[in-house]
Amino acid sequence: MARLDYETFLSGLPDAVVGVDEAFRIILWNAAAEALTGKSARRVQGRTLKEVFPPDSSLARHLAETLRTGESRSEAEAMIDGTDGRLVAVSIVTAPLARGSGNVEAAVAVLRDLSRIRQLEEEVQRGQTLAAVGRMAVGLAHEIRNPLTAIRGAVQLLKNELGDEARWGEYTDVLLKEVDRVNRILEALLDLGRPVQLKPRPVNLHQLLERVALLAEEMAASQGVRIVRRYDPSLPPILADEDRVVSVFHNLVRNAIEAMPRGGRVTLTTRVSMNPLFAKVDLGTGTRQLVEVQVSDEGEGIPEALRAKIFDPFVTTKQRGLGLGLALCHRILEEHRGAIQIESAPGKGTTVSCFLPIAK
Ligand SMILES: Nc1ncnc2c1ncn2[C@@H]1O[C@H](COP(=O)(O)OP(=O)(O)OP(=O)(O)O)[C@@H](O)[C@H]1O
Ligand SMILES: [Mg+2]
Q1: Which of 190, 326, 329, 333 to mutate to test the pocket of ligand 1 (most atoms within 8 A of CB)?
Q2: Please, what are the domains in the chain?
Q3: Residue 4 — pLDDT band, cuts 50, 70, 90?
Q4: How far apart are CA 204 and CA 238, in angstroms?
């Protein structure tokens, strides 16, 4: 067996490992520690931890105590300075290292970045909320549909009875138009809440996106928006229900166009996913790689306050919007065991990333 190379071993760990000697000098700093703190091993090696982290920081405190007492310390959630001065939530566990003599000679800390776990938890939470809202909406929609059909029928009769007199005609037309609008909302809601039988097949993603581009062409042209393609031609087919996925990207492209009333570019990018959170998925019939499709615009962006609830139904800032587009996209990607993520810089634009499994 090849000799175990600790450096390689440590650098492959997803958790940050930091070690200090008795004098609190840094003797261990793996690749994950570099990524988490934005400080390279070369820069910190040999310096004392207190030069790198404030002495009152959780990490320094726990390591100091472990050195002093020879006991392990842990904290479920601590904040440390991450890259770009951002605070990162981590869990910390420390352990003493002692040689034969029993004296503590060093201490190590293992730090686990909690933000990824949080993100996954939020995903799950969001899915559950949507499912509950969906079920309620379906029940409600069914209850409302029948009386609404009766109202529509009665108004139609009334309209016929009242004959041609323009004054009444105006009223009955408003009634019919509004009843139809409520019906359309109900249809959209039913679409969201209805359990669907997915028909996934291998689908050429780029042909699918071209279908979407064609659907959005007229709307884009009328607003001076150009659709730019950045396709990775080597991409394998995806496993998807084509019509459902078309409606995902149609919604996203429509949102992108609507975000640019003075024109601009919508960019469609495809590639094999390099996102560590969404790289692979287990479909029960084996693990599949995920591909990423990005829909980017140069619009006004999404205000910070709106971002947390953007996938909830009925969240809209548009006069004629239902706020169901993104809720539906989320639902459909979940059905495909994929994922959806939004990044937005107010004033600069928005990028929505969708992750979908490849066919094999
Ligand atoms: N690309 C984008 N740029 C800026 N804001 C966006 C973008 N996409 C979505 N939003 C914001 O998120 C809200 C919700 O979007 P969603 O697609 O769910 O509903 P909607 O577009 O308002 O209505 P509809 O049901 O017709 O899609 C929008 O009203 C808008 O404020
Ligand atoms: Mg929309």
Answers
A1: 326
A2: 14-113 (3.30.450.20), 118-193 (1.10.287.130), 201-357 (3.30.565.10)
A3: low
A4: 7
